[in-house]
Amino acid sequence: MFAIIQSGGKQYRVEPGQRLKVERLDLEPGSQLALPVLLLGGEKAAVGAPVVEGAQVVAEVLGHGKGEKITVSKFKAKVQYRRKRGHRQPYTEILIKEIRG
Prior knowledge:
Blueprint: E1 2-7, E2 10-14, E3 19-23, E4 32-41, E5 46-47, E6 56-66, E7 70-76, E8 81-87, E9 90-100
Antiparallel strand pairs: 1-2, 1-4, 3-9, 4-5, 4-6, 6-9, 7-8
């Protein structure tokens, strides 16, 4: 059984036991959270409008971190304009415990 969930404006396909990095959530490590289900798949599929009623994904927060560094460079010819910035996107790592349908 799998589910399509939404977190941080993005959609993810998840299964029980899967580890997932999502946009940073303001939750302590070890806490549980319930995520809305947009689509429930398996032997009998259920599509939500916009969410599947009575279905939820239970996940546990494992920790927080920062992603890989991305370098952003800007350059304009002939005007001595050069900018260089780095960015590391914060994330929350979660463990999918179960899918309740």
